[in-house]
Amino acid sequence: MNSTAFEYFRTAASLVFTPQCFDNYFFDFNYLDVPCFKSSLSKALGLLIILGSLTVRVPQIVKIYNNQSGKGINIVAVTLDLSAITIYMAYSFIKGFPFSAWGDATFLAVQTVIVGALVLYYESSQTKAISYLLGYLVVCYVMLSGLTPLNVLWSLQTFNILLVIFGKLTQAWTNYNNGHTGQLSAITLFMLLGGSVARIFTSMQETGDNVVIMTYISSASANFVLVLQLWWYWNVDIKEKSE
């Protein structure tokens, strides 16, 4: 491999390996370095989660659009979920955490606000859907532009644990009352569960922030409840239940 090609390879590898770990693996052939293994695994998982987050809610969006319905999706639960994602995104951005540790939140936020707007569009009105989108853009500007002090963002991140739990369980309660999971997408729920479980490890490795770690533990637990409900109500006829 010539020097130019090697430099390109080293640059690409830096997405996963720190300079020290790169040298350990590719120069010293030391494959038993535990700290390097944990660090590289965390960065690799982070990248996979970010790639997955590009489409994680797309099946949900497509399902709502194809059925022209947001039936069974609790807009309060969606908004609480969106709030938790946005708080974490703003907190991580202002704190300067590595993008691999929180980048998925950016793509999740975009897709979640689209879900919320579609639910309002089909179940309420076009005006409410547009207002929802515009209101969210204003909130993002205030939280990400530096107008919101870091200590306020830290307090909000602490509150995030309750937001995550309450938001997911609100949807779980809606599912229970309806006797079905409505337009919830199985693919989306499984991807969210897998992502939140993986984020527990990456947060421990890359941020060391106990509040962030506890947030993802709470998110994984609540997502697991929704996945269980999906399995429980799998064969329920939504139209029959609605009647």
From TrEMBL:
| Gene Ontology cellular component terms for the protein in this record | membrane
**Pfam families, alphabetized:** PQ-loop
**According to Swiss-Prot or TrEMBL, what is its membrane topology?**
Multi-pass membrane protein
The domain of life is: Eukaryota
Name residues in a coiled coil.
none
Query: Record keywords: Membrane included?
Result: yes
Gene3D superfamilies assigned to the protein according to its UniProt record, in alphabetical order? 1.20.1280.290
Transmembrane portions of the chain: 74-94, 100-122, 129-147, 182-201, 213-234
Alphabetic keyword roster: Membrane, Repeat, Transmembrane, Transmembrane helix, Transport
Database matches in InterPro entries: MannP-dilichol_defect-1, PQ-loop_rpt
Q: Where in the cell is it found?
A: Membrane
Q: Which GO terms describe its biological process?
A: oligosaccharide biosynthetic process
Instruction: Give the family, as the similarity comment puts it.
Output: Belongs to the MPDU1 (TC 2.A.43.3) family.
Know the name of this protein? Mannose-P-dolichol utilization defect 1 protein homolog
